[in-house]
Specification:
Length: about 325
């Protein structure tokens, strides 16, 4: 605690990066006194990097836990502002709830990492990080260690997000609507259900997703028309058939089908190689010309199927 002595006051006043680490060996009362003292010396709220790692004693009373949670909230609020670029929070032992309103002014946040027992409900609240490039969410982020279902929605209209990591020990069911044109998808070895919401149909991305989701059983793809489709570089004939197609995928739903050659090529790849595929459901976009629609659906029905169980179904309103 001597670092807060008058001799070092000038160091704290203009410091822009903080890394606080406290485990159970440090009494929380001493830790809180130190952090409060340091943050109170700040001249202005222009912190650029803030790292906080805490391991609480889970056997403390409710009042003490409430006090600890309040301290964490105060520290985070002290760090958050338009100058913050990197925020790393790691909380262990019991859950800390953070309101999404805390992050309303993080317009320059580039890197955000949550791990441990952090709960932030964003279902009815929009959180915008226009400068975000790296997002990492750890296993206990939803405060349910026995999780069987997880829903996560990400909007990145500025295309700045480059890295996304969602880390789980066990994932049985996960609905993951994504609304980002440029994203490097992580690997999900045990993911069973996946829903993608795309700005446009992108077989380059979808081929990569299939390779990363080894046990995928259900895939739902919703294609919007907010951007023109990218140039296709994915070539199914030179692609090793993904593990999920050979042994797990049973259902795929293509929503917003427009009859593009890219869409047809991807659908053919699934139909030919989906050895356990039971259903491919296609909803055609209402803007599609009737003649083009009939021709495209006819081509789909003529594609040989790798699974004798496979049924090709269309939106009843457009069935050929």
């Amino acid at each position: 605690m001597s670092l807060v002595s008058p001799r070092y006051l000038h160091l704290w006043k203009d410091l822009q990066a903080f890394d606080f680490y406290f485990d159970r060996s440090i009494p929380f009362e001493k830790a809180s006194l130190f952090v409060n003292s340091v943050l109170s010396l700040r001249k202005s709220r222009d912190i650029q990097k803030f790292h906080l790692t805490l391991t609480f004693d889970r056997y403390k009373s409710f009042d003490i836990k409430k006090f600890q949670a309040k301290c964490v909230e105060i520290w985070i609020l002290a760090a958050i502002g338009p100058h913050l670029q990197e925020l790393i929070l790691s909380i262990s032992s019991y859950c800390i709830k953070l309101p999404p309103s805390f992050f309303i002014n993080c317009t320059n946040l580039v890197s955000l990492r949550f791990s441990g027992a952090i709960d932030m409900l964003v279902q009815d609240y929009s959180v915008h990080f226009p400068s975000l490039k790296k997002l990492s969410l750890g296993a206990d982020i939803v405060c349910t260690p026995q999780i069987h279902y997880f829903s996560f929605s990400l909007a990145a209209p500025t295309s700045k997000l480059c890295s996304l990591a969602l880390i789980f020990d066990v994932t049985v069911y996960m609905q993951w609507p994504i609304h980002a044109p440029v994203l490097d998808y992580p690997e999900f070895r045990h993911l069973h259900h996946l829903k993608l919401i795309l700005l446009c149909f992108n077989s380059n991305l979808l081929g990569h997703v299939l390779e990363q989701c080894h046990m995928l059983q259900v895939l739902i793809i919703q294609s919007n028309k907010e951007e023109p489709p990218p140039l296709r570089t994915w070539q199914p004939e030179s692609t090793t058939v993904s593990q999920c197609l050979k042994s797990h995928l049973t259902y795929i739903h293509l929503e917003g089908y427009q009859g593009l050659e890219d869409e047809l090529t991807f659908a053919e790849y699934i139909l030919r190689n989906g050895l356990f595929l039971k259903t491919m459901l296609i909803f055609v976009d209402i803007s599609m010309d009737k003649k083009d629609k009939d021709c495209s659906l006819k081509r789909l029905t003529d594609i040989p199927r790798g699974s004798i169980m496979c049924q090709l179904e269309f939106d009843p309103a457009v069935s050929p």
